[in-house]
Input
Amino acid sequence: MASEIIYGLLQSLTFQNLLIMSVCVAVGIIVGTLPGLSATMGVALLVPITFGMNPATGLLALGALYIGAMFGGANSAILLNTPGTPAAVATTFDGYPLNLKGQADRALIAALVASVVGGIVGTLALLFLSAPLANFALGFGPSEYFWLAIFGLTIIGGLAGKSIIKGLIGGCFGLLIALIGMDPVTGYPRFTFGSVSLIEGITLLPAMIGFFSIPQVITMLEQKEKYIANYKERKGIYKKTIIETLKKPVVLLRSSIIGTIIGILPGAGGNVAGFVAYNESKRFSKTPNEFGKGHIDGLITSESANSSTVGASLVPLLTLGIPGSPVAAVLMGGLLIHGLTPGSKLFIESSDIVYTFMMGLLVSNLLLLIIGLIGTRLIVKTLKIPVHYLAPIIAVLAVIGAYSIRNSLLDVIVMMACGVLGYFLLKVDILPGPIVLGLVLGVIAENGFVQASLISQTGTSMFTMFFTSTISIILMILTALSLLTPLFVAQIEKRTFNQNNNTDNK
Output
């Protein structure tokens, strides 16, 4: 194995491959930054171009673009409060507040460093732990996915802002939107209002763009400020922020490990990883009340978690031939057009290509750091664009992004409808985060519940599948802890407050 790793590293460091990876990382950052142009779309558009390359170089190009796009979503999330990719939703929670405080450069650099660390951790897991992680992924069935979604829904309390009740209301809105479409059991249309186009349900990206972009545009115009935020470049901020971020190894590693575990589960993805890791960082933080107000830990948690899913999502693809994410499914097409069949034999018959690809992912993450540091100086200058120019640009990009997903005018209408709904909900302090979380996890929870209950009906007792597997039991315990922990923390804080008051009175 050591010889294959060394060979793969040397191959990925050739001038041609370095040049192609650098270009693809830069293109990926641009793709990820623009709302609607997701990593999946970028990689899909690149696949035909790689057909004329040798297999190793083609895969390196696809992997580099994937890595760049996953980070690129943080740029618009931080600067415009509009996540460029679904995985960057949790980045808006603390990234945009940091921007409003005039610390956009600090937020962008911290996100970049966290993305690189998360990407490296996920790739190392792919490199050294592929077999056991793939076996772990196989242990997840419908009931496990159901409990994973339920565990994820407990995060709503952490994203609710000032009111948990309003956060739950937002989560319910998301769940209701997730119910639109065809019933998975009966095949009967639900909440489609007679529209055939809605039978397929609401696509995540148009809804996400609507809930984040349109309210932001309207709010920007309402406030009548000349710029989004007051930004002034500070000397030494790059070095200072890099050191500050790297001094949080526990946060970085915990979030990266969570992202790696969730990333190998087919269908979960970076958005779920970001939410779960964010909640855990808030739970273990000494200052949980600062999360959502511009806490650097919340920002680096989201970015390290979603970036670690890049390498992790390739674990089931390369070892079992099962894509762990939509981008991995597109990458599978890239493998097939080069005559490579994913699975265990891939490591035997084409080990040189596989290890070149995996080592190339490590190199691409380092290239991301270099290119990202250069690009940050340019990206942050968007804050100098007056609001009356920037708001129409965001609105146009939102329309283009929503339409380009499926070339469907319906997606634009959905985006606008979600945007108007999100604006009025924002007026009553119902944030878009819980809504999108409910939408993402609602689909996973329903599919898992329906499939598991149908399988249980073939046995002796209905619903036994939900309570029998070890993974389900562990997820149930985590769900209970996630629900009870805030109550214990609140009681401890209340007791401490009362003790301090009594001491002061004496």
